[in-house]
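Ticket reopened. Same input as before:
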Amino acid sequence: MKLKAKQNREFGIFIMLVIVSAILALNSSAFLTIENFFDILKSNVVLGMMSMGMLLVILTGGIDVSVGSMIAAVTVIVGQFLIKVSGNIFYSMVVGCVAGTLMGLLNGILIAKLRISPIVVTLGTMNIIIGITLYLTNGNWITGLPQNFINFGRITIGSFYRQGEEMIGLPVQSLFLVFVAVLTWFLLKYTLAGRAVYAIGGNRVSAERIGYNLESITIFIYGYEGLIVGLAGVAHTSIMRQVDPNAFNGFEMQVIAAVVLGGASTLGGYGSVLGTLLGVALFSIINNGLILLHIPTFWQKIVVGIVLIVSIGFDVMQKRYWESHQVKVDIDEE
Amino acid sequence: MQNIEKSIYISRFRKNKEAALFLIMVGMFILMSILSPTTFLTWRNIQSMAYQLPEFGILSIAMMMVIVSGGINLSITFTAALSSIVGGLVLSKLAVSGAPTPIILIAGILTFLGVAACCGLINGFVVAEIGITPMLATLATSTLFEGICLNITRGGAISGFPDAFLWIGNSAVLGIPFPMIIFVLVIFASYLILERTSFGLKTYMIGCNPRVTFYSGVNVKRVLFGIYIFSAVLGALSGIIMASRYNSAKDSYGSSYLLQSVAASVLGGTDIVGGYGKIAGTVMAVMIIQIISSGLNIFGVNRFVINAIMGCILILVLAINTLSNGEKIAAGK
Amino acid sequence: MKARKKALLVILAFVSFAGMVFAQSKPTIVIMPKLIGIPYFNASEVGAKKAGADLGVNVIYAGPTTADAAEQVKMLEDFISKGVNAICVAPNDPAALSPVLKKAKAAGILVLDWDTPADKNLVDLSVHQIDDKVYGQHIWDLLVKEMGDTGDYAIITGGLSAANLNTWIDYGLAYAKTKYPKLRLVTDKVPSDEKQQMAYQKALDIIKAYPNLKGIIGISTPAPIGAAQAVQEKGLKNKIAVVGTALPTDSRPYLEDGSLRVATLWDPSKLGYLTIYLANEMLKGKKPVDGQNVPNVGKITVWPDGKTVIMGPPTDFTKENAKDYPF
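Engineering reply: fixed in the latest deploy. New output:
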């Protein structure tokens, strides 16, 4: 039954996506082009990758508001590494992943061992991480990254559309996103840890009684999220070709919004990689559409707020309608 | 379900948690006084803190009450901002028109409260009627309110308030700053409503388990509407104080208080999944945050480091809470 | 023994007394930016601290971590409690700071504003880096020089609530209305939240939404760079002219290939230096004079009201001279 509920949720988001895209396509000739899609993709790979990590956390009923500061710290560390130690791309990825994973593990250990609620712990670590990062860097940008790294960021795959005299392909960073999405999907579907994540989110006490080690799973998912943050930080730096410690202020809310938009329940137990990707897509297309549709600046936030309420409301009401037509009554839903 | 059991356990340890907070508060005050003896422990500084605290404190109480009901109100700061902007417009327009001052004040303040009540109504509708989870619902309404603020002000600020209005935020009665008096009144009112009425009790129940509460015959929707509206009205009070203190209304005022108010609520012992929380705890947490912030500022610590220290304190206090209680707190959010 | 002890005590008392007197004789000047932790204000910190060292003044550089007027008010209230000689503040919102500046004046503290003006009637001196009107018009002049006086253009700004950015834009738009009537602004200024990534994204969207675009103005330091990045990646640097307010070191890669045509700003470290210098002079009772030559800064202009000081004209950074600047 849970599977059917999931399918329904994703279908709802998909419908919203189609509707919004249709509105955009009809009103703007620039929307339905490969160039636009690649731009949206490139601008949102980081959001997409971080959403995968956040999905796992939200599936267990937790939340992580420190991801914005974590990725800021990772970009600073990676940037310093590239300039001062080595321009090797692979090593920079390793450094980023290690830094991210360590921070994630810190969150995980505090949550699991001290048994403090995740929003509180991550609120604390968010302040600590960004406080230290901004204090050490003073907000100064890191520029002058090694040329081979910059070239790496510019790589595109395949030839899809013409731009001037070149043929432009898929930005290389989208491979990062594909890798992370597939890895997360595989983790959730085919590994014991993945099954445990759903179990914990569904009913914590039952999961414990079945024999899952809650502590290890918790530490694992926050660490995994940290790993993804590391990769996302490297991807971001390769796109922007500079490091700005202030670039991610408020970013965590966008990640959470995208994940929850994609059907994941903040109470845990519901959510999927596909749904999250759809949520990210919906989120990014709404933002892209605001300017393409020539919506005046001072109306944009109002439009976003209304669209969010309408699309989620529609999804929720549809789910309730579907549920009220069921025979089985699920008492333990909370 | 576990939360009800926990509430029973906690009612026994209740005195412990609030007592611990009180000790921390006193301890911090002493520490800051030692660090900056001639500048922290002065009447001027205490008065200054008493001016700064209320706008944050009222927002924290507003946030805490919603958290107790099992939700969260991410739109509280933009509710305050929107109410100040519209209220400010009314104040400035009426001031120019030359109406008598009492009428201007009454009309202005009623506008503040009215706009906020509408915001609360919208929140209540989205959460209770439509049924969107509070985090996402208030995230969306927060964006909506921010958009309306920007649309009205075009990014600028509203100013031109009558002197009588400025008196609210900047004067002292018998040495006690007026905002502090408002804060004390808010504390009493919120305490009475939350911990001494059936409405408050129902709020706690909904925070523990909405479904069971519903089956017990409580009109959950009405209570939720009430809580979000009350929370928004508190936001308006904070907005009044801010508009008066800053002599203007702008969309960005108070936006940094959002996560801080969640931190204050949790530091004060409120359970983030709902069902437990004491006003006294939240108030003490607010004071702790204020004392540390002012104290370290005067001592000369870099603001970023102060942020990091606040984060550490948040985790430390909660760790101590958990470890000393020795219970297994069911995770949630 | 007793005599020696007594002598020691006397010397100790004298030294500490002298120390206290000496310490007090060094004035303490607080210089508060809009926020700390962004490169522009970091540069002004360098200048301010240097002035402190040169002039023998205690300089406290402190500000909020976000561009929050409420935070500034709080910090200023704490500094009034602490007891300083002068406060120089770059207000996030002028009206918001009026009550606290009044309190400062009542406490006998010298009040200056710098970078962004506060309430003129409250401050003792107002230090501007450039003349806002001249600056706004200059930016539009630069745009027209690059793209011509006919065609579509867009504005990417930092934040919609930033008073100084809005002032420059308003002056520029008013100027363009009369002087360059054939310029067409395609949509309201687009915010980028002071983030290059967002400016980059918005620039991409604007380019697609308005295919006849010929120019982009970026106001606030990350914005022109984000816009230039978008133009560079799309290979449109010959079609779309990007100009704006940016720091030379950050702009260099884009100036070099022409995706950013010219950046115009001033030297923030000079502004920091000037502010402390003038505050110190005022504490000594000396008001600034029009045409006065300030060491390390240059010739300043003082308006007839005696209160407004202009540091100098804006500096344009191009691919030729960008490398000469360290900020």
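Residues 49-325 of chain B form a domain with the ABC transporter involved in vitamin B12 uptake, BtuC fold (CATH 1.10.3470). Chain B touches chain A through 54 residues (CB under 8 Å). Please confirm and we'll close it.
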